Amino acid sequence: MSKKKKVVIGSVIGLVIIGVIGFKVFSSKGTPVETANEPNVEFFTVENVEQVFINGVVTPVMSKEFTKDTTLGKLGDLNVKNGDNVTKDTVLYQYLDETTDSQIRELKFQIESTQAERDKAARQMQLELNELNNTPTSDSGEAQQAPVSKESVELKYDLSSYDIKMNQLQTQINELSEKQVNKVVAPFDGQVIIPQDQNRDSAILTLSSTDFYVEGSVNEKDLEKVKEKQQADVRTVADNKLYKGEVTYVSNIPNTQQASEGGAATNSNSLSNYTVKLSLKDAKEIRKGFHVQASIKLNDKKIEIPKEAIKVDDKTKEVYVLVDDFGTIAKRVVETTDQGASKDKVIINSGLEGLDRVIVSSDTPLTVGEPTPGGDVSAEGGDK
């Protein structure tokens, strides 16, 4: 076979192989793959309401750190454990003043010595009184004149003076004993926090009250919008729980001086921040150090959503809605009222914010935490 024929045959075979491979690839890519149908979801976007947002941290209303005080003596065992909830005046721990031990021992020895002296004096006095009673009488029946009287014998030995001395010694012992054990008590109701690693410089324990407030900050643009006694919705970052709050303090002094001297203009990244404090109501499950975001509505405009979006948890009886939280289905506990609401809608007193995207309905069940499915149908109010 000529070289030319060999080349032609090789070329044909190559083209056939390439064609087969190409056909398989094309068939693989061109074959339609069955995909799960996206659920048909109806959304409702909450109308925007002017608000001020305050990011802050949960702080106990009262907190006290207890450190070692060597002037009170040797530290004894703790009377409480980590996490204990205690009431005011509960003994937390105590010190033992070892320097008073020798003084107490000396005083007890003096009491014993005084008691022995009293016992001896009492016996001697009784002997003299017995002799006095046995004095013979005259023939006329009258007793001969005694050299001493009973009263003089009792005065001579003065047993009450021993009793007085022992009582005084015992009083000194009691006073020293009270000083020997220096009790440290809780100054208020609270929870005990004991550090895991103990050293000579660490605190013995910390007592924190179980009522909390939020300490956050607001920038200079929103400072004049925030006033004391304004109501706020406070939502925890960790578990997304909602609490009621109220502004109790607004500072008029910036936390840091970011503006340059001479009144130079500042940009958006160098605005001064001012401390804001908010009280918390019924915050029983919240913890010290939790991060929260508080929102304060600046007008009385009511948030309305379709009634169909409202759901009730069968176990907890919580009223809630499902929302699209940046592409994930989230649960929001809400407070609602029908009074003053438009037809087929409810007013949301708390739990939602302007521009929240509420899921009104879905033709298939939705699960919290899963990605939010897309939807083409939007209820009145618009789709975010």
Give short descriptive properties of this protein:
Elongation Factor Tu (Ef-tu), domain 3; 24% helix; alpha+beta; rod-shaped; 384 residues; six-stranded mixed beta sheet; 32% strand; six-stranded antiparallel beta barrel; 22 strands; disordered N terminus
Tell me briefly what this model is.
With 384 residues, the chain is of the alpha+beta class. The chain contains four helices and 22 strands.
Major sheet characteristics: 6 strands, mixed
Average pLDDT works out at 82
Number of strands: 22
CATH topology term of the domain at 51-60 and 211-256 and 270-374: Elongation Factor Tu (Ef-tu), domain 3
User: Which CATH class of the domain at 51-60 and 211-256 and 270-374 applies here?
Assistant: Mainly Beta
| Termini Cα gap | 75 Å
User: Roughly what fraction of the amino acids lie in strands?
Assistant: 25-35%
- Overall 3D form: rod-shaped
Q: What structural class results from the helix and strand content?
A: alpha+beta
Low-confidence parts lasting 5 or more residues at pLDDT below 50? 1-35, 258-268, 375-380
Percent range of helical residues: 10-25%
Q: What pattern of helices and strands is seen along the backbone?
A: HEEEEEEHHHEEEEEEEEEEEEEEEE
Q: Write the CATH homologous superfamily of the domain at 51-60 and 211-256 and 270-374.
A: Efflux pump adaptor protein, beta barrel domain
Rg of Cα set: 44 Å
Q: Helical element count?
A: 4
| CATH architect. name of the domain at 51-60 and 211-256 and 270-374 | Beta Barrel
Biased composition (Polar residues): 131-147
Organism: Vagococcus bubulae
GO cellular component, one term: efflux pump complex
Domain YknX-like beta-barrel: 213-296
